[in-house]
Amino acid sequence: MQDLFQIVTQLLFQGYLGLFVACFIINMIPFLSPSNMVLAGVVAISVSWMDWRIIGLTVAVAAVTAKTIHYAVIRFSRKVLSEQRLKSLDMEKARVEKWGALALFIAAASPIPDDPLVVYTALTKYSPTKFIVSYFTGKVAVTLAGAFIGYVAGGFLEGAPIIVASVVLTALITGFLLKRKTEGSTPSTQESHNS
């Protein structure tokens, strides 16, 4: 797992294609990906030759691409659900149609976890086009903001962007690994309490 994060960290600073691939990989990990706003900011503060607007757009497109794949897989998985569960989900469709776009925008543009909403909209057969547009609008707003903040901060910190970026990325990766380790150890802890 640590090797993967070293690869991703190196990719973040290898130009726009590397940034896209790194952010795509990060966003493909459900429920555990770090803030795209922070990622955009770290890259903008660290790589002065990259345009902050393109950084923001690249991070947003990578995130939306990954979450659209999640959406498609989950929507396809409806086939394995019981008839009763499908009827229950279909009854939610009107509410999702009414509030889905706003909810997706808010989830994409804020630090609240968006994976549960991606699952919910996919299971209720929310329009894929509306999903992509709403999610992208929210995600691009937050990633452009993060990249702009990083760009401005990079101007103030001229000599130290790499140090700052290293500290932030180390904190992100450490937090992610600790979260992953904690979640992985929970079942065994519960088993030991049950014995």
Structure description:
This protein is mainly alpha-helical. It has one domain (2-159). The protein contains nine helices and no strands. The protein has helices at residues 2-12, 15-28, 36-46, 52-76, 83-91, 93-109, 115-123, 128-156, 161-194.
Q: Layout of helices and strands, plus pairs?
A:
Elements: H1 2-12, H2 15-28, H3 36-46, H4 52-76, H5 83-91, H6 93-109, H7 115-123, H8 128-156, H9 161-194
Helix pairs in contact: 1-2, 2-4, 3-4, 3-8, 3-9, 4-7, 4-8, 6-8
Kindly summarize this structure in a few lines.
The chain has nine helices and no strands. With 195 residues, it is mainly alpha-helical.
Shape: elongated
Q: Into which percentage range does the β-strand content fall?
A: under 5%
Poorly predicted regions are: 185-195
Main sheet, how many strands, which sense, barrel?
none
Determine the number of helices (DSSP H or I, runs of at least 4 residues): 9
Distance between the termini: 30 Å
The overall pLDDT average reads: 79
How many domains make up the coordinates?
Answer: 1
DSSP helix fraction: over 70%
> Over the alpha carbons, how many angstroms does the gyration radius reach?
19 Å
Assign the structural class, choosing from mainly alpha, mainly beta, alpha/beta, alpha+beta, or little secondary structure.
Answer: mainly alpha
